Automatic annotation (TrEMBL):
Highest rank taxon of the organism: Eukaryota
One GO CC term on file: Golgi cisterna membrane
Subcellular location field: Golgi apparatus, Golgi stack membrane
Membrane topology (UniProt): Single-pass type II membrane protein
Organism: Sorghum bicolor (Sorghum)
One GO molecular-function entry: galactoside 2-alpha-L-fucosyltransferase activity
The protein's Enzyme Commission number: 2.4.1.-
InterPro entries assigned: XG_FTase
Family under the similarity heading: Belongs to the glycosyltransferase 37 family.
Keyword set, alphabetical order: Cell wall biogenesis/degradation, Glycoprotein, Glycosyltransferase, Golgi apparatus, Transferase
UniProt name for this protein: Fucosyltransferase
């Protein structure tokens, strides 16, 4: 979602038509966004995205590195304009690939008929640093930190199967709660090259500390017999007067949600609020190309976006998508080090925008490395990724 949103905005800014690669899952996840036409690349299109890589002769970065343009810095000679250019904008991209974000290079690319882009990043913040785009971006987004919120709601419409899962789960478990708290849990503890999903008690403590410190979930009573007394009080008062918080957790492991529920069952909330914890799935490990797995993941992103309050895991694009759709500034749980809970356990996001993890740090005009988080007041470094960039609302500053 993040990468398609980025490509769509770039197409808007450069007066291009966006066509999306016909990878096998997209039709199972999203409806066509534009009535009467398709945004999928035609099946008989002569160019295949799988044919291109960073070292392909058609790669823009490779062309620059190999001086295909004869060293001409403005790259404006008509004879040097290829019919199409491949843009390698994924996490492995190099210095010459990143020159895509320079104004001179954009002027050249504007003259190329077809651009084939491979990206796995939310590169919108760097578009805001290209002077030629800034006026149009200001007109499109007077509130600059709402780019993903508006474009994602415009572009992405879950298929009937996905949306049925969302609405059925919401009505069954979440709709009647007085308050809904979403907790998105992504584990980055590693052993060798394998990601381990725990369980990690320090992560559980971090979740509870964040939720209770920020008053998203109530404190629990430590008194003996509190559970029985609370249950008797609820029975006497009748179920109609119960105040309920529904906690929606998303994680590959069910252990964290089970432990949170257990805590509130054994030690009820001090103010008598009932806390119910729900988790739609626990797949144990990520299955990136599995259709059912991806449909469940998309449904859970939309369920999280229906929360009143949101806690996310830093560095997680899953959480970015949920907060952007919701229009909520989440509480971000910081990455732990050496199995020790960070202090503080979480912090409030500056904006609802996702973070560009692999943002370039090259000043195109000065032709040297620079801190691009200090160029304009509405692009800052991310809370969870110190080298990344995100868009913020100037009123926040």
């Amino acid at each position: 979602m993040l990468e398609i949103t980025s490509a769509f905005l770039y197409a808007l800014l450069t007066n291009r038509i966006l066509l999306v690669d016909r990878y096998k899952e997209i039709a199972d996840l999203f409806c066509e966004p534009f009535p009467g036409t398709s945004w999928l690349v035609p099946s008989d299109f002569p160019l295949n995205n799988d044919e291109f890589s960073q070292t392909s002769p058609e790669s823009y970065g490779n062309m620059l590195q190999n001086k295909v343009f004869g060293g001409n810095t403005d790259r404006s000679l008509a004879g040097n304009r290829p019919p199409y250019v491949y843009l390698h904008l994924d996490g492995t991209y190099g210095f010459h690939d990143k020159l895509f974000f320079c104004e001179d290079d954009q002027q050249f690319l504007q003259e190329v008929s077809w651009l084939i882009m491979r990206t796995d990043m939310y590169f919108v913040p760097s578009l805001f640093l290209i002077p030629a785009f800034q006026d149009e971006l200001s007109r499109l987004f007077p509130e600059k930190d709402t780019v993903f919120h508006h474009l994602a709601r415009y572009l992405f419409h879950p298929t009937n199967n996905v949306w049925y899962s969302v609405t059925k789960y919401f009505r069954s478990y979440l709709a009647k709660a007085e308050k809904r708290v979403g907790i998105q849990i992504r584990i980055y503890e590693t052993k060798g090259i394998l990601q381990r999903n725990g369980p990690f008690p320090h992560i559980l403590n971090q979740i509870l500390s964040c939720a209770q410190n920020e008053k998203l979930l109530p404190e629990v009573s430590m008194a003996e017999g509190a559970a029985a007394e609370t249950q008797n009080n609820r029975t006497a008062a009748g179920t109609q007067n119960n105040r309920t918080i529904a906690v929606l957790t998303t994680s590959l492991s069910s252990w964290y949600s089970d432990q949170i529920q257990k805590k509130y069952d054994e030690q009820p909330a001090v103010d008598g609020i009932t806390v119910k914890v729900f988790q739609p799935s626990h797949e144990e490990y990520q299955r990136s190309r599995n259709k059912k797995h991806n449909m469940k993941a998309l449904a859970e992103i939309y369920l999280l976006s229906m929360s009143d309050e949101l806690i996310t895991s830093g560095f997680s694009t899953f959480g970015y998508a949920a907060q952007g759709l919701a229009g909520l500034k989440p509480w971000i749980m910081f990455k732990s080090e050496n199995h020790v809970m960070p202090d503080p356990p979480c912090g409030r996001a500056m904006s609802i925008e996702p973070c560009f993890h692999q943002a370039p740090f090259y000043d195109c005009k000065a032709k040297k490395d620079a801190d691009l988080g200090k160029v304009v007041p509405y692009v800052r470094h991310c809370e969870d990724v110190s080298w990344g960039l995100k868009i913020v609302n100037q009123t926040h500053l």
